[in-house]
Amino acid sequence: MKKGIVILFAAALGLAACNNYKKGPGGLSYIIHKDGGGTKIKEGDIVKLNFIQKSEKDSVMFNTWDMEQPQVFPVAKKVYAGDMNDVLTLFGEGDSATFKLDLDTMAARSGQPKPQGTKDKYIVFTVKVEKVLAKAAGEADSTFQKKAREFFEKDYKASIDKKKGAEAGKIKKYIADNNLKTTTTASGLQYVISKPGDAVKPALGDTMMVNYTGKLTTKKSDGKDNIFDTSDEKVAKEAGKFHAMAQYGPRPITLGRAIPGFDEGLQLIGKGGKITLIIPSNLAYGEGGMPQGGISPFSPLVFEVELTDIKKPVAAPATVPGATVTPVTPAPTVKK
Which UniProt keywords apply (predicted)? Predict the structure, then answer.
């Protein structure tokens, strides 16, 4: 998987250096890096794509290779010449390409404003068309939809089975690559305590103030850590995960409300403690994953965590059944 994306990038860079982008309608620009020779995509086909979505300044916004989760969707009727659905009709199964969609044209023709705050003229996609399922001439819609559903359900199951089978190897490789000496609990959680902290450990219901960075065990295609969440502003910016509305620094997490592996691991250290958690998917997001967070099914996770404080729950004041609580009226101020 990683080798394939590296080759694709090399091809993209090499060809972009010696070829000009071809011009298309609606401000579209594109380069085909590899022509698989297949029939071109048409409206109504169902496609399976791997792609990288970038800003004009080369900032990665979405990468299905890093998520290990290609996208499957039907090709809809184009809204305007040169839109996303239109550009796909330039490609066929096995093709790889880079194309630029003009954001000004997109806003004007679709009625949707440009992304807030962006000054880019283009949004850039590098794609590989993995599969095209086309409707045969004269084939009934219901028959085609049934065929497509059965095909992609089978394809998805094969992908899930592959991820499930690879999980133990990912954990083992991460530990070996980082030269970690882990301890394993009965649940399968593995951890390394770099600083134990105070003797008092958090208990269920406590609010823990934690600094953390969560990442996958596999690297991104550029060789960097595959970070999906962090409380560290600097790390967030470097990983392209910064959100202006997010609050960085120690974050409150109630013990018992996080994923099981995180809850279990945080009970192993006290205030001031630091721990590395290697969490198997059955103690994280399991078979479903968390696609919106960039976590695919059967993904083991790694958390680097510092427990900065433990706050006990505040007990509510005891009341006597049937008793009436009379508010206290402040005494009047006496003028001298």
Answer: Isomerase
What tens digit of pLDDT does each residue of 21-43 get? 899 998 899 999 999 999 999 99
In angstroms, the CA 134 to CA 110 distance is 27
| CB-CB contact of 227 with 301 (8 Å) | no
Q: With 0.85 as the threshold, say if the pTM is over it.
A: no
Q: By CB neighbour count within 10 A (0-12 exposed, 13-18 middle, 19+ buried), where does 331 fall?
A: exposed
Tokens read off for 44:
């109504």
Residue with structure tokens 């086909």? Answer: 45
Instruction: Find how far residue 258's CA is from the centre of its chain.
Output: 18
How many whole angstroms separate alpha carbon 160 and alpha carbon 140? 30
Among residues 305, 301, 278, 126, the alpha carbon closest in space to that of 228 is found at 301
**CA separation (Å) from 121 to 29, 105, 228?**
12, 9, 27
Task: For residue range 168-178, list pLDDT tens digits in order.
Answer: 999 999 999 99
Does the pLDDT value for residue 7 go beyond 50? no
Between CA 54 and CA 306 the distance in angstroms is: 33
336 vs 326: CA distance, rounded Å:
30
Interatomic CA distance for residues 250 and 209, integer angstroms: 5
Helix (H, G, I), strand (E, B) or coil at 210: strand
Range 169-181 burial, b when 16+ CB lie within 10 A, else e:
ebbeebbeeeeee
Maximum alpha-carbon separation in the chain: 100
